[in-house]
Amino acid sequence: MKTYEVFLKREGKDPFTHAGSFDAPDEEMALIYARETYGRRGEGEQMWVVPRTAVLSANEKELAMADRDHKHNDGLRVAELRRISTGEES
Amino acid sequence: MRAWRDMDEFEGFLDAGGVVEPNDEMPEPYRQAVFRFIELHANSEYMGGLTERDWIPKAPGLHRKLTALAKTQDEIGHAHLLYMVAADLGIKTREEMMVDLLEGRTHFHNVFHYRVHSWTDQIAVAYLVDAAALASQQAVFKNCSYGPYKRILRRVIAEEGFHMRNGEEMMLLMAHGSNTQHEMMQESIDRWWLPAVQLFGPDSRPNDELLRWHVKSERNEDLRDRYVQKFVPQLLACGFTIPDPGLEKDQTDGKWKISPIDWEPLKQTMRNGGPDSARRISDARNAWNNAAWVRDALTNQPAST
Fold it and tell me: Hey, what's the torsion of the CAs at B131, B137, B143, B145, to 10 degrees?
């Protein structure tokens, strides 16, 4: 048995979303199980079924934002500068 | 993968609304407690699915047979999803959980330890028991700190909602049917009211770990009380009586108060010593053994003899 992960996409612009996992003996059965387990009430119009071993996961450290503040702008400085430019007391 | 220095730090994380994922280094007591809880839930869905299956051939009419069929698939499906989530905690494999259940070493909810005598019993199970199970699942879903369980509960709850609605529909048909139907339904309510109320379990202990770790978010007694406030008026409105001579409406707060529950028989039942436990477990074992050839065929093994 091999473990598979299922991703479903609903209609419209929603992205694929992880639905869950299950075990299946082969790819043919994997598709049948995936549909019967996660898609039997029209939960999605598209489905990806991926062997768990094929999913690479990045860890928290690799995804940490600590040194990447420059990729965001939280708007606090903008607010401060707006206050100054309109002469409001902060 | 995250790790915590000690239990205090971990509990702080949970108190702040933190969600634990399977590859986190969670403290062992938390892993064990979450696993036991999910395993019990999975076992209950599995045993419930088998009961449902028994009624497919006996359900009146094609439509009811089809809904019984769909519900069976849902319940077995829930077990399937929950066993996956439990197995990922790395304590037992799915196979080990099945064997433990079929050998009577692990447990399942009280409501699946009694005989279902009639079609109206089956309706009472769908209406009263499914609603109780749904209420307790919703209380877990609301704020569950274990991510995979919370995500899978969303699906389980949506499907249990269909079952409960089917149950209510059938109960109402019986309530407004012939005298015989009404009486039959009353007999089934008499049999299933107490087991349904007991599904919530005795009052939560003050130091309940599952509450402290935000797996459950409501106390058993609160869930039970809310259930009573909802179902007593519904049953009375349908012209049924509640099999509890001590039941009364409190004049000060207008709430229904049930008689104190003797939990001793329930403890025995939960240890697989209920009136129908042995038959149910051996029935489940037979079903598992009789389907061995299907599992063998799927894995391309020579059929076991």
Answer: 180
